[in-house]
Amino acid sequence: MKVKFGPVEENIVTREEFSLSKARDILKKEVIAVLGYGVQGPGQSMNLRDNGFQVIVGQRKNSFSWEKALKDGWIEGKSLFSLEEASQRGTIIMYLLSDAGQISFWPTLCKFLDNGNSLYFSHGFGLTFCEKTGIYPPKNIDIFLVAPKGSGTSLRRLFKEGKGINSSYAIYQDYSGNCLKKTISIGIGIGSGYLFETNFKNEVYSDLVGERGTLMGAIQGIFAAQYQILRDKGHSPSESFNETVEELTQSLMPLVSENGMDWMYANCSTTAQRGALDWWKKFRDATLPVFRELYHEVSSGKEAERIIKSNLEKDYRNKLEKELKHLRESELWKVGTTIRNLRPEKKES
Prior knowledge:
About 55% of the residues lie in helices and about 15% in strands. It is α/β, with parallel strands linked by helices. It folds into 2 domains: about 1-200, NAD(P)-binding Rossmann-like Domain (Rossmann fold), CATH 3.40.50; about 210-349, N-(1-d-carboxylethyl)-l-norvaline Dehydrogenase, domain 2 (Orthogonal Bundle). Strands 1-2-10-9-8-7-6-3-4-5 form a 10-stranded mixed sheet, sandwiched between helices. Strand 4 (about 55-60), helix 3 and strand 5 form a beta-alpha-beta unit. The mean pLDDT is about 95.
């Protein structure tokens, strides 16, 4: 359906207009091979399986993710195979390896992409930055993406609760003439709340900016700055964390999600209301130059180049663990661990 967001009209697909039974019927002859069982692979594959699609998983044998797939009910030789065998068996290849993994496995995968097959992504990185990734797909296949706007863990959790994460969708190459129907069918099958149209370039640009911005990078920076100034001024760790993280994540953000920021402003104390209205533009103006720089780094390909270079370093995992350890052992997140364990539901479980 066409939905207007102010002056802009967008293509939106809902579960009501595109049913699960319709999706199953469209893909009834397809074997969906999910390559990769890391971030998005588990949630998408299990949701498709539970929704009645013919799904197999491809993963490197004897890896941590291989063992996880076995625990999740995939059966070796029946629904769980090596990456190579799953690639050969599948008619729709869901390429859900990490970006670095996609680059590494691509010379092998392209040998299995037969005429009329479909190649699916949940991220536009590999094809948008093809000059850096070396991923140049053949012309005789369908290529599309569905990108859930959340983690694979959240996708699975909300699916089990009967809910769904909104997803974007895009067509890169429609060889069969039936690519849109397959795309929407997969999107409904993995449990999307609704689907909105984009393209591969816009998906990866917005995704990289979001991850580095309000979703993870910027929010961690703001958490760290506010926590530090409160601690520097003599506030206790508990008070500093609760006012910085706990109240936001446990109380306010769910309400903003349900009702919007204007409702949040209208339903808080007049003191909080006045302060928030007076200060939000200062934070916007302070961070806007950073976001301009960030978008330029993403759209120029410089960010992709840095990502690929660092991910392909032999000691990348060791460096990553050191960086994560620095976060984990900071006072901010040590306090967070303690406070999470004090929540009533934690004590009862």
